[in-house]
Amino acid sequence: MHKTTTILLTAALVLATAIPAQAWRSIQNGDRNFERAWRAYTSRQTDKATGYFTKAADLYAEGLNQDPPTRTARFPSTLAKAGIAFYAAGRYQECIETMKLTLTRDDRMWEPALYTALSYARLGDAEKTKEELHHFVTRLSSQRFISDMVTKQITELEAGTTSLDAAADALDSVTQYQFIENINRNYSPRDVGLATERCNAAYWWRRNMEPCSASGIVTN
């Protein structure tokens, strides 16, 4: 009896250890595929990027659905990357849910409102799309091209002069352009910003093609 109890306890401990490890590996592999996707996306290899985003979405979903999730899965940067991957993979409802969770971790982020609006547009919900676009405006984002396009699409949607799909297409296009411009400016010889500012730390994708350490930017 004592031997059986010991075996059962050992098995339970192994299982308890294995689940968090599996969740961590899923998130780690999701990050790797997101990084591959981002390099392709910011090189305008959109089809290739979509393939990697789809793989990343599968892995992030695996990691986020573990109970309990790992500490890494709760980071706002991880949740934002997962939300972006879900959107790119066409998993719009998961994008919406993940981006809402992201805001509970960091309510200063502008990505949740943008990608939530895009997801609602793809799902055909006009009111929610406009609501989230207005939320984006209140974030006072420094992303000038995106901000200008958001304002334009709000005006056109409220006037009924554009469709949700057309608005989403326009926002998708300008978002990709914005990130590419951010990267180009970040590595311009005229850029005199501190390395820490250029890196943007956990939110590296805003101004970099790849994580800061891989870009050769060292932060302390």
Could you describe the 3D structure shown?
With about 220 residues, the chain is mostly helical. The chain has a domain at about 1-100: Methane Monooxygenase Hydroxylase, Chain G, domain 1. Helix content is about 75%, strand content about 0%. It has helices at about 1-40, 45-65, 75-90, 90-105, 110-125, 125-140, 145-160, 165-185, 195-200, 210-215. It is globular, with a radius of gyration of 20 Å. About 35% of the residues are buried. Mean pLDDT is about 85; it is low at about 5-20.
Features of this protein?
220 residues; mainly alpha; Methane Monooxygenase Hydroxylase, Chain G, domain 1; 10 helices; 0% strand
The number of helical elements comes to 10
Strand content: under 5%
CATH class category label of the domain at 1-100: Mainly Alpha
Q: Distance between termini?
A: 55 Å
Summarize this structure briefly.
This protein is mostly helical and 220 residues long. The protein has a domain of 100 residues: Methane Monooxygenase Hydroxylase, Chain G, domain 1 (Up-down Bundle).
